[in-house]
Design goal:
Helix 10 (177-186) links the parallel strand 4 (169-174) and strand 5 (192-198). The protein starts with a strand and ends in a 5-residue tail after the last helix. It has a six-stranded parallel sheet, sandwiched between helices. It contains 13 helices and six strands. The chain has two domains: 4-16 and 96-200 and 242-276, HAD superfamily/HAD-like (Rossmann fold), CATH 3.40.50.1000; 21-92 and 202-237, no CATH class. 42% of the residues are buried. It has helices at residues 10-14, 21-31, 43-52, 58-68, 76-90, 100-109, 122-129, 132-135, 155-165, 177-186, 203-217, 243-252, 266-276; strands at 4-8, 113-121, 143-147, 169-174, 192-198, 257-260. The radius of gyration is 19 Å and the shape is globular.
């Protein structure tokens, strides 16, 4: 008898690092943009844009930002590659949400199939899987699905999981509107229950990520940074969603259920939902 599959977003749902990713995106874009092209671009603008495009790969975010700002960044691929290294090293200081590791293990025990689905390049995810952080949950996962040639987060991943384990249902746990809209586009083809993960980032967390990324950058050889610059930012210019706004936006994007709470509560609430759904005892 087929079991249920759960597809998890790594960054922002399993690992509490959504305050870090937009900051690393902003720093990578800024550092790889020539000084003379930064006149209408600020770090705060880049961080805010990164939050609004949560769920997109870094390269896609950079491409979209470039479209709106006269292609200020001359080499998106180089900047995105730098982001991968910067974010990976910085994220070693981040941790799983409280209860995430135990919930994955318990879901595996009852026969559920857990997958990570990500827009990050597969080779980056494969390296992460071998890190101490990745190894903490690797035994509870069926597979980590990333970006491969002609294989992307969204329809390709839904199709792969459906064909591989033939689940009776796919639970999709996501924290971004863009990810839930992808579910809506695939509802008729696959049996998916979408769960909006409503965890809010506040400005102090963003500033904490700024300090973390700066510390990581200080360990990079200056030769790896084409346009090194001292970066300062104004916290008052940061824009982060309020909790009610995030929950409403997730529902508006078609989430069948929304789970909220702080970093200590949200996985307890998610466990409660899976228990009420009959997936857990």
């Amino acid at each position: 008898m087929p079991g249920s599959a759960i597809m998890w977003i790594r960054d922002g749902v399993l690992v509490n690092r959504m305050h870090l990713n937009p900051v690393a995106f902003a720093f990578a874009y800024w550092l790889f943009t020539p000084s003379e092209k930064r006149s209408r671009i600020t770090i705060e603008l880049l961080i805010n844009f990164g939050f609004t495009k949560s769920g997109f790969s870094c390269a896609d975010k950079m491409f979209l930002f470039n479209q709106e700002h006269d292609n200020a960044l001359p080499n998106v691929d180089a900047a995105a590659s730098f982001y991968n290294e910067l974010a990976t090293i910085s994220a070693q200081s981040c941790s799983y949400f409280e209860g995430a590791v135990d919930l994955l293990a318990d879901l595996q025990k009852v026969g559920a199939y857990s997958y990570i689905t990500s827009a990050v390049e597969q080779e980056v995810l494969d390296r992460w899987a071998q890190s101490p952080q990745g190894k903490m949950i690797s035994a509870s996962l069926m597979e980590i699905l990333g970006r491969r040639p002609n294989f992307f987060k969204g329809t390709d991943h839904f199709e792969y999981v459906t064909d591989t384990v033939k689940p009776d249902c796919i639970y999709y746990v996501a924290d971004a509107v863009s990810e839930l809209l992808t579910v809506l586009a695939n509802k008729e083809r696959f049996k998916i229950v979408s769960i909006g993960f409503s965890y809010c980032i506040d400005k102090p967390q963003v500033m904490e990520a700024v300090g973390l990324v700066k510390t990581t950058l200080s360990g990079f050889p200056q030769s790896e940074i084409p346009y090194p610059d001292e970066i300062e930012l104004d916290e008052s210019r940061l824009q982060v969603p309020q909790e009610y706004q995030l929950a409403d936006s997730l529902r508006g994007a078609g989430a069948d259920h929304v789970v909220g709470g702080d970093s200590h509560e949200i996985f307890a609430n998610l466990r409660k939902y899976f228990t009420q759904s009959g997936l857990l005892k």
